[in-house]
Amino acid sequence: MIHINRAVSMICLFLLGVLFFPAASQSLATQPDSDEEFFTLKNGLNMREFGGSEVRNLLNRQHGQGVTFGKTQQKHYLRLKDSEKQIQWTLSNLQTGKVLSRSENADEVFFGASASKIFVAATLLNKQHGKLRKDQLKLMARMIVRSNNPAWKELQRQAGVDGTDDSGREAVDTFSHEMGYTNLRCFQGWLKNDDGSKTHGNELNCTDVNRFLYDTFHGKYEGAEILWKIMHATRTGKKKINKYTPKDIYIAGKTGTYHGPNESPETIQLKTLKARNHVVMLNINGNYYGLSIFCNTGRDEDVAILGGGLIREYLGVK
């Protein structure tokens, strides 16, 4: 990592291979017409150009799929909202932070799966004061856009003080608690404790995740703009919340999918996990909203229908 005075020109930063973002002072609500303009940071640096051909191919904004939300979907939505205990959600206005709808269990921990990757990205960005090398930008784009697991583990190691798995997990855990997210374990793998015991990570809840979305939108940690923009390119949500969202709505987000044994039975009271999660930020009529859905039914369609119903009931989407 090369540290450089902010007064030095952005041309020098580009040549040195460092993507730089000073702390944000305003929200990120604008949506320009072109992807080229959108993925240019406030300081004038174009992430698509800086990252090379792979990053350019990955960084393309995603929209809703525009599938019709009819009477069958509406009936299913009401059932999910009223009686399905294996789903939690929080919907909030990201400009004001006001919670518009939440499930009664929105504070309980669910298995996060790949949704935890956004916290690893934020930890690394904040550690490096909003600076990323070209190789790190490539890894972050792979981790968020494609949900690449090797990139996840490597960036978590780099977030630590000495590049090890344990220091990376500790760094992510420390970042989340310093930001005030008190009921999360958003690191990947097992964290070794001082007494020799281990704590399993990847436990999230929708309440704290939406607080993170708010903090990202308002630039509450260094480098938040970079992650916020990369999340707009996530390609893995087409069967989830994207499905019943109209095509003219931009969606930024991160999904998480896992089906297998539960390694955290002391906090999550299930033998088998069937995680189908989606965390999104939606641009609707110039306003941004955060919606987090954690689902353990094993069905992407449940996430898609709950998301489609919530944005229609509370955000006026047709």
What does this molecule look like?
The protein has 318 residues and is of the alpha+beta class. The protein is 38% helix and 20% strand. It has a single domain (10-315), classed as 3-Layer(aba) Sandwich (Beta-lactamase). The strands form 4 sheets. The chain has a 6-stranded antiparallel β-sheet, sandwiched between helices. The protein has a two-stranded antiparallel ribbon with strand order 1-6. Helix 5 packs parallel to helix 7 (149-159). The longest helix has 16 residues, at 300-315.
Outline the secondary-structure elements.
Blueprint: H1 10-16, E1 18-20, H2 35-38, H3 47-58, E2 62-63, H4 71-83, E3 87-93, E4 99-102, E5 110-111, H5 117-127, E6 131-133, H6 134-146, H7 149-159, H8 165-178, E7 190-192, E8 198-200, E9 203-204, H9 206-217, H10 224-231, E10 250-261, E11 272-284, E12 287-295, H11 300-315
Antiparallel strand pairs: 1-6, 2-10, 3-4, 3-12, 5-9, 7-8, 10-11, 11-12
Helix pairs in contact: 3-6, 4-11, 5-7, 5-8, 6-7, 7-8
Q: What is the number of domains?
A: 1
Helix content: 25-40%
CATH class: Alpha Beta
Structure summary, number of beta strands:
12
Shape: globular
What is the overall pLDDT average? 91
Mind telling me the C-alpha Rg? 19 Å
List key phrases describing it:
318 residues, Beta-lactamase, six-stranded antiparallel beta sheet, two-stranded antiparallel ribbon, disordered N terminus
In short:
With 318 residues, the chain is of the alpha+beta class.
